[in-house]
Every structure is written in structure tokens, then in C-alpha cells.
Design goal:
The complex is a heterodimer of chains A (894) and B (121).
Chain A lengths: L2 E2 L2 E2 L1 H9 L6 H26 L1 H12 L2 H14 L3 H4 L2 H17 L1 H30 L10 E7 L7 E2 L1 E2 H10 L3 E15 L5 E8 L13 E2 L14 E4 L1 H8 L9 E4 L2 E8 L12 E4 L6 H4 L5 E8 L5 H17 L11 E6 H5 L2 H35 L1 H9 L4 H39 L14 H27 L3 H6 L1 H6 L3 H35 L9 E7 L5 H14 L6 E7 L8 E4 L1 E2 L12 E7 L2 H5 L6 E2 L13 E5 H6 L10 E3 L9 E7 L14 E5 L8 E8 L3 H15 L5 E6 H6 L3 H35 L1 H9 L4 H33 L12 H27 L3 H6 L2
Parallel strand pairs in A: 7-12, 9-11, 19-24, 21-23
Antiparallel strand pairs in A: 1-2, 3-4, 3-13, 3-14, 5-13, 6-7, 6-10, 6-13, 8-11, 9-12, 10-11, 15-25, 15-26, 16-25, 17-19, 18-22, 20-23, 21-24, 22-23
Chain B lengths: L14 H18 L2 E2 H11 L8 H13 L3 E6 L7 E6 L1 H25 L5
Antiparallel strand pairs in B: 1-3, 2-3
Helix pairs in contact in B: 1-4
The chains are: A alpha+beta (894), B mainly alpha (121).
Chain lengths: 894, 121
Amino acid sequence: MRERNGTFDWRSDVRARLAGAKLRPEDEAQIVEEVGHHLEQQFEEMTPRVGQKAAREALLAQLHEREFDQAVAGKRRREAPSRARVWTSSSILQDIRYGLRSLRRSPGTLVAGSAALALGIGLTTMMFSVIYGLLIKGLPYDDPSRIAVVKFIDPTQPGVDALVPLADVTKYRTQQRSFEFLGGYSDATVNVSGGDRPDRVQASRVTRGVLDVARVRPRLGRLFVEADVAADAPPTAVLSYALWRDRFAADSSALGTTLRVDGRPHTIVGVMPPGFEFPASTRVWLPLPTDPAPAQAAGGGPVVSLIGRLRPDVPYDNANAEFKELARQIAAARPVADTNSHLRIAVLPFVRASVNPRFFTLLYAMLGAVFLVLLVACANVTNLLLDRAVNRSREIGIRTALGASRLAVMRQSLVESGILAIIAACLGMAIAQLGITLFNRAVAGAPGPMFWMDVRLHPPVLAFVVAVAIAASLVSGLLPAIQSSRLDVAAILKDESHGASSLRVGRLSRAIVVVQIAVSSAVLLASGFITRTIVELRNVDPRFDTRGITTAHVTLATRDTSRQRAFFEALARDVEKLPGHEDLYVGAGLPGTGWIAHHITVEGQTYRGDRDHPIARTLSVTPGFFQTFGVRVVRGRTIAAGDRAGTEGVAVVSESYARRVLKGRDPIGGRLRVSSAPDAPWLTVVGVIPTLFASTFDDPWPPEVLTSFSQQTGVASAALAFRGGGDGASAAAALRKIVAAIDPEVPVYGVQSMTDVMAQPLFLFDVFASMFVVFGVVALALSAIGLYAVMTFSVSRRAREMGIRLALGATAGAVLRLIARQGARQTALGMAIGFSLGMLLVRAIAASLFGVRPNDPIVLVVVAAVLGGSATIACVVPARRATRVDPVVALRSE
Amino acid sequence: MCGSHISDSPPMLTDELKKGSAEFLVLSLLDAEPRHGYELQKLIESRSAGVLVFHVASLYPLLYRMEERGLILGRWVEKAGERRRRYYRITPAGRSALEAQRTTWREFVGAINRVAGVRYA
């Protein structure tokens, strides 16, 4: 007989009565509570009539009737749900309904959880759709993964691939077995004319069959046939849809008429469908004869890239091995020693081969980064759900007592995180769609975009969203689910606050926050370096003027040097008529990009071979270069009007040339050749200029040599630059008129401001770098919110402890320090882990950094300060709240 | 007090008769409003003027059985200032069962009356 405070503990009696029944704990808890309560009430009612002793005996007798035992226990045993029943569709539906109802009751969790996940899912989806549209989806043709390129990678010149002599194409084609078809193509820009005005367009010269690789039928006419590639065949051309639309107004009678390409009439035999630009953003295709003329057979003639369609059953590895061996055999059979033995041969899918490896790495590093952001978001949701699990421990206890199995409790918790993930996936797709729209808008103006790029929410991307959402709901829901199912039911039903501590969520939440801080430090560190790179690029002083300058290009089709010279002399003379212009420049190119790298021979030096010669980038300019771009010589003189053909050859070199090539010797008066060939003319160095920015990441301040445009022969192409002359459109029109008067076949193209010219090479980088910065900021925000939530939660659970401390005389400052110390420990640990992780990420993108070393202390300090600052705010706000706890209130609250 | 269902029961009301009617009684009482176990016991006792008496050993097995069969549904309800209690309410299935039992009962009583000639005032 158990007695407590003068009354009987009927529940213990019931529990003892059920002891032998082997009920499930939750069933037992229910019966104990219900029947115990019943007996208690009946006892109170009977006692005044029959006395305590008699009442107790009577009720105990009732309780011990056999029927109670058998009926209750037997029934409950039967009712124990089988595992299978937990997973019926109706019970899951019930869970979903319940989950929706209970989430609606706590809108905070719903909004915060789904917003965090939506950001994570949105960014991940956006990044994945970029990668999918750019790298995975491949060419928009039949079985694109089989369209392959044979690359000859030069390890000494990353990003610049070697080409093969046209004659080798036949050798490779006849000896190989991996490809269904193998051919060669070379890119070129050509002048097209024979309409209202000439144009400069991208052309691909292709051996027969290269166009068939894509398995795309022409919209009009035909592709090239054997007769088109014969050595003496009349010239033919296949047009892209865009060129046909722009030059022939999409008139089908254009078929069979001629298009002048570089001054020669070509018969139009076909028009490709819209969007077809294979293999190189091509506007017009020209046949490339493989007839082995003597010059070609000896390895001369044009050089091409190898392209083809792999047989369906041949793995890339096998093709690689075959071509490695073939290349060795072909080189060995060459009459002259092969200079390309250092090349590495790789058979790669077309898209993989066409994307700069650095860009490839950057994209995947970014995908890694967004997955980390998603992980941070999941961690936030995990903590929210853990918090919720604690607040609902009583509810969960009751559910368990009412017969919910551990599995069912877990499932309920997972269903709730699943609901959050579904909402987040929908919002996330909207975020991704917004990002994709912005991305597409940003790259729409990109120069030479990868023509196959098609960034949308493709079905596989949607499948990815579903997979990510499922993963996110599992990642964020599993821990709370497991924790909930481990609740001590009896303890909770007795005393909620005690029972909740059986979850031990405090330690878990804190661990999660450490992970969160670690991950976001890693992402933030990487975006810190990228941000620094963007800032450096924006602020870089190129050492020449870019503002207020309009630029344009002209290229002659003729190879006749005297006609070329006559044209450029006429151009230099007539362009002076350009209305309203101030400074004016005509030369081989513009400052910034587009110079040509040459081997340099310094007089007095001996070189054993080509590779011993130093390399400098070179540009032939007219005196206008120095005025127009504000380039001042630091010593000596500029290229002058008198430096023309027939006078002593001159050169102006950069300071970096003096430093790196001449090892600091005085360049003035010295002589050099812009070639490794011994018959190239000597040029005397007459001036030194500051090093001009090369608009590239690899070597932004390379050795530079300026030569005189007028002393150059065999120049077919020129750049123009001028200040003033009205807006771009009117200047372009005036310029076209001037050029057309000299030669109506010569197009004026690429009319744009110098600032746009400078922005171009870094354009895509800018887009992706900005995305990276967004990732960093989102990660930071999410983890700061996460830390704040966990601190708030932990402070609220420790309110009683704080109350006691304050009541016992602790100062507010001491309590603040106590809480802040906990936050600081987590932050420090997280940052230590995160920075090591982040350095790996930074190393992966090191090639994309500019003006900042991967161990730059400033970035490290700033990132640490930003993280530390956010963490401090996230800790101090809840901590301050804790110090305002009224000890009396805190002690009373249970 | 150790009898299975009845205390001070008149000899004519057999255990079997009560057993058969218990479910009917519970459904009838829950038809009006949800009630907890103790209330059900008290109501049956008072309305039958002590003729029918259920206690824990018979009442709860009955309730659990009825709940399992889907005739009634038990729920924990908390009211301000009170201990929480398990309230039972009648389900649609329970309601149709009740209707059927009412009809059977009326027919049974009618038949008994006609045969036994019991008359009401």
C-alpha cells in the first residue's frame, strides 16, 4: 500500500496491477493515468460514506478482478501496431495533416526554417542549373556525349592548345578505330561582303563530314559533299541561320547565289537551322580540302583541331590510349624531328574540351560553396526543429503514451522537416529562377558566349531540386527525429522541464553551430578572396587612359602587302576627316588584350633553342598610340612619325621588359629581334614606357615591346581609336563611310568604347565572382542567425540558473561574460575548423585570384573580424536579455 | 462487491442481459456529449437508480474495446485548473451502431410486451 501525504497513490496501484501484463510503455502510461484518476475520484467520493479503509479495500478489489487484467492487457497487446502499419499511406497522410496544423501554429519555425532552406536550395539550384546548362547538358544534338575533341595540350602554355597539320588529319582518320568519324576544323574570322555592307564574322573551315558530326539537318539545301572539298572545287559555303537572316532577310532564294568571303565568291549550298553554331560560334562554314598537296603532306599548310564522333561502345580512356600511341607513330614517321613531343594528348567530350580548365574548376568550386551554404541552412533548420522538439516534448511524450512507436515519432518529425523542405523547394525554385534570369541577362552581352550554353530550369535540374530537398529534409530532420524518439516518456509526463533535458539538445545544438560557423567561415573566406580580387580588378591602374575613347577594327582580306600598305596609308590619311575627333590612333591593336606573344632575341645573347628565348607581348603602333591612350615614355622617346619603312627599325619597351628580360640593364640603344629567327630585322630600343596592364590573370604585367606600325609588313588587320567624334553610332557610321570609300569590301567591326574593351576579358569572371560574393554573404547571414537562435534558446533554458546566480549576488557583467564565453568558444572552434577548410577552397580557386595571394593576411583578418563581429552580436543580444532576468520570476518559472 | 458487474442487483437482471446492454448504454450517453470514464460510471449508476453499476474492471475494458472497434474515440483534454482527462466521444460508426441497437431494442421490447402482456400506465 503506497501512501503519499495522507492520500493513496492509485497510479502506483494500477501500475503494479499491470506489471505482469507486458504492455507497451505508452499503453501502460495511458491506462495508469486514466484508471488511476478514476479510482482516486471514486475513493474521495466513497470515503465519507464508508470510511477510508473500506473504500480502499473495495476499490482495490475491483482493480484486481480478473476481467480487468485480461480485457485490458489482452486488448492492448493485440493493438500494438506492427512496423508495417506505421508506413501505410493513410497514416502518412495523417502525419502530413498533423504536421501542417502544428507548423501553422508556430509560424516562426515555418517562416524561418523554410526561408533558410529556400535560400540554400535556391542558390544550389541556380548554381547547378548554370553548371548543367554549361557543362553537363552538352551540345544540343543527338547523343552529345559522343562528340569528342582530340586535344594536344601544351603544359608550358596552359589554355593554349596545339593544333595538328591538316595532312595529319588523314593519317589519324585512317589509322584510328575509336571514332565513327574524325575530321578537322579551324576557326577564323572572315570578311563577308556582297550586300549592303561588309561584315566580319566567325567562320569555321571544316573537312568533309565535320558538320555531319552534329547529326543536324540543314534548314535549306545541303551540307558539304565530297565534291566541295576537292582541291580544285569551286568555293562553297553553308550559312548559319543568323547570317542568312541578317544578310539575306531569310530569303530562301539565297540558296545557289554567292556570298563574297574574304573577297572570293562562294556559292551558298545550305543554311543551318536557328541556334546551330557548331563548333565555334560559327556564322559561316567553308570547306577545308584535305587533298594532300605536297606542301601539306610535308606537315605544312593549315593547322586544325581534331573533332569527331566516338563509336558508341568506345570509352574515352581507350580512345585516349589509342591516340597517344597514334601520335607517337605519326611523329616518328615525320622526316624532321618532332618539336611537339612535350604535348599531352587527351580525347575529351566537346564541351569539356572547349571550356577553359580554370573556369571549369571555378564552377565546381562554386557548386561546392553553395552546397556548403545549403549545409548551413540545413543546420539552422536542424536547430529550429531541435528547439521545437524540446518545446513539444510533452506532446511527443503523450503521443508516445498514446501508442505512437519510436518510428512513428521519428516519422512525424521527418514529415515536418519534409513539409519545410517542400515549401523551401518551391520558394527555392523561384529564387533560382530569379538568379537564372539575372545570370542570363548578365551574360547576354558577353563576348563570344559558349554557344551551347542553355541555362534554364531543365527537367534534370528540377530532379536535382527534388533530390536536394529530400536530402535537406533528411539532413535537417533526422537528428531532431532521433532525439525526439529517445524521449523518456514517463519522465516527461511527470515533469516536462526535466523530461526535455533528456533530449540533451543543448550540446547537440552547440555542436551544430560549430559546424555552421566552420562551414560559413570557409565560404566567407573564399568569397573574401574573390571580393578582394574584384576590388583589385576594378581599381587596377592599367597605366593607360580608357575613358572617352572609341575603338574599332578593320581587317583586309588581301594578302598582297603593297595593297595592304596602300590601304593603311589611305586609312591613316582619310580618317583625319572623321568629324569632331581629337586624338587618333591606327595600329595593329589596342592596349590591354590582343597583343601577340613573340620570342625575343636580345642582341649579344646566345640561345640553344626556341624555348630559351624570352617571350614578350608585342604590338606595332603609330605615334597616335601615345597621345590617345596617354602613355608617356619614362625614358627616351616614343615611336615617331618618322619611324617608317626604310628607316632604322625601332622599338619601345616596357619597364617589365627591362627588369625581366634585360635583368635591369639599360634597354635604350640596345637591339632586339621580335622573333627567334636569325633573319628577322634588328630593332633599336629608343624608349621605355611603364608596363601596361595585360588584362589577364596569368601574367598581368608581362614584358612588352612596341614596334612601329609603319615599319611592319604583312599587316592585314588594324585597330582604330579616337577621342571625341560624337557618340558611338554616329562615329561608327562616319568611319564606315570613310573605309568604304577606300575599299568597299573591308568591314568596320567591333565598334565600342575602350572601357567596354577592357571589361570584356573579365566579363564572365565578374559575373561568377559576384555570385560567389552573394554565397558568402548568405552563408554569413544564415550562420549568424543560427548562432543567435541557439544562444537565445540556450539562455532561455538557463533562465532559472541565471536567476539563481543573480539572486546569489552575481553581477550582470559576470552573467554576460558567462554566456558570451560559451558563444566565443563555439565561434573560435568553428572558425579554426572553417579556416582550414576555407584555405582548401581558396587553393582550388587560386588561379582565379588577382592581386591577392591565397594567404593574404588582410583578407584573413577582415573575414575573421566580420565573422567574429556577427558572432559577438549574435551572442551578446541574448546574453544581455539574460542579465535582465528578474531572479524571482526566473526561480518561479518551471 | 466482488461480483463481476453488479452490486445489489435484483435477481431478474442477469449478467448476460447487462453485458449485452452495456455497449448500448455507453453509446447512448456519449450520443449527447463527450464524457470521461468516471462520468460514464456515475451517470449509468444514477440514471439506473443504482440498478446498473459498472466499475473500473468492467468499464475500461469495454471502452477500450469499443474504441478499438471504432465506435468511440478517446482523447486527452486539458481544462484550466483541472487534471487532464480522457474524454470519449461517439464516432459516426458508433452513431449508426447506436441507431441499429435502438431499433433492435424497440422491437425486442415491443415483442416482449406483446408476448408477456406487460402494460404501461
